[in-house]
Specification:
The structure is a single chain. This protein has 10 helices and 13 strands. The chain has a 7-stranded mixed β-sheet, with helices on both faces. A 6-stranded mixed β-sheet has the order 1-2-3-6-4-5, with helices on one face. β12 and β13 (328-330) form a beta hairpin. It folds into 2 domains: 6-148, PurM-like, N-terminal domain (60s Ribosomal Protein L30, Chain: A), CATH 3.30.1330; 163-330, Phosphoribosyl-aminoimidazole Synthetase, Chain A, domain 2. The chain has 337 residues and is α+β, with helices and mostly antiparallel strands. It binds adenosine-5'-diphosphate and magnesium ion. Adenosine-5'-diphosphate binds at residues 15, 18, 33-36, 52, 81, 234.
Length: 337
């Protein structure tokens, strides 16, 4: 057999390997590696912990990302993971490694964004770490949240015949990234050029300033519905469907026509000569929620307009995307290599 490498394992294989070698010593560790957040049993409620690393040149490009937006986004993506457990974020820590390229104004701008997100989500910045970097800006945010024990939602709870739903609309953040990348290339060719993104404010905004859907967690709580499974859509719908499928040991059938997509997203796909299906299914960073519900909750969830049914759960562990032509395509593995 060939020797295992990081390449052969891929992102998810690597995480599985780390997980299989991690020993749990404490009985209050209710759930470790594998979901959107770790779950700690603190007696009356569960504490949720989620962390994300953002690297300049990998996750963001400072030629078109204002630092204030970056600060906001770094917080929002962690809030999104707490929301994916049906929890409420409470505290964050923010760690940064900065190079001598940055001045005080730049750091102030970044923290303006962090503080704006703290205000928007009602969370407290309670710590972090500061270091110098030799290779661009590094940001690490950890979010701590809380959820009632009877309300927690894992990736693993989806059951046969459940309804599959998504929040908001999909694909816009990815198309926003295409627009920003195009503007960057044109700017590099002609620095006098003014950006032409006026008609693309929606998709660009979705890329630069995503929101964690704590509003959905609130709405579901109001109507007394607890989803059977949930995950946030950070890596694209296809990838997240495969996660829920694997953890819940069920299959997903979703209908492309039912997926909420803004017109400007589809128009931008056409303009960039990109396949709309691939872009919508695999484009990441929308930070919407993929949720499954019991059939019996269907009437209740209709009262939340931001939730759209897109398919159903099957006993067979196979994942299908049905196109309007009736044609079916199998949803296959993704993730970085
Ligand atoms: P998400 O996209 O929701 O942030 P990830 O795919 O990054 O989730 O991570 C999936 C799970 O693997 C999470 O439980 C995360 O904490 C865990 N994980 C990722 N990288 C590591 C690592 N280097 N060591 C331990 N756990 C990790
Ligand atoms: Mg997640």
């Amino acid at each position: 057999m060939e020797k295992e490498t990081i390449e052969s394992l891929g992102e998810f294989g690597l995480i599985d390997r780390i997980k299989s070698n991690a020993v749990i010593f404490n009985t209050n560790t209710a759930l470790g590696i594998g979901d959107d957040a770790a779950v700690i049993d603190n007696g009356n409620t569960f504490t949720l912990i989620s962390t994300d690393l953002l690297l300049e040149g990998v996750h963001f490009d400072l030629t078109y990302t204002p630092l204030k937006h970056l600060g906001y986004k770094a917080v929002a993506v962690n809030v999104s993971d707490i929301a994916a457990m049906n929890g409420t974020p409470k505290q964050i820590t923010v760690s940064i490694a900065i190079s001598n390229r940055f001045d005080l104004e730049a750091i102030d701008e970044f923290y303006e964004g962090v503080n704006a997100a703290c205000e928007a989500y009602h969370i407290d910045l309670v710590g972090g770490d500061t270091a110098s970097s030799r290779s661009g800006l590094v940001i690490s945010v950890t979010a701590v949240g809380e959820v009632d024990k009877d309300k927690i939602v894992y990736r693993s709870g989806a059951g046969e015949n459940d309804i599959v739903c998504v929040t908001g609309d999909l694909g816009a953040a990815y198309m926003g990234l295409q627009v920003l990348e195009r503007e960057k290339q044109e700017f590099l060719g002609n620095p006098q050029m003014q950006p032409k993104i006026d008609d693309k404010t929606y998709v660009v905004g979705r890329q630069l300033k995503p929101e964690g859907r704590t509003d959905i967690v609130h709405d579901l709580n109001e109507i007394g519905v607890v989803p059977t499974s949930m995950i946030d859509i950070s890596d694209g719908l296809a990838s997240e469907i495969l996660h829920l499928s694997k953890h819940s040991q069920v299959g997903f059938t979703v209908f492309f026509d039912n997926i909420p997509i803004e017109n400007i997203t589809l128009e931008t796909c056409t303009e960039f000569n990109l396949n709309p299906i691939a872009s919508i299914i695999s484009g990441g960073e929308d930070y919407e929620l993929l949720i499954t519900f019991k059939q019996s909750d269907f009437e209740k969830i209709k009262s939340i307009p931001e939730i759209t049914p897109i398919g159903f759960v099957t006993k067979e562990i196979e994942n299908w995307l049905v196109l309007n032509s009736g044609e079916k395509t199998k949803i296959v593995a993704q993730g970085w290599k």
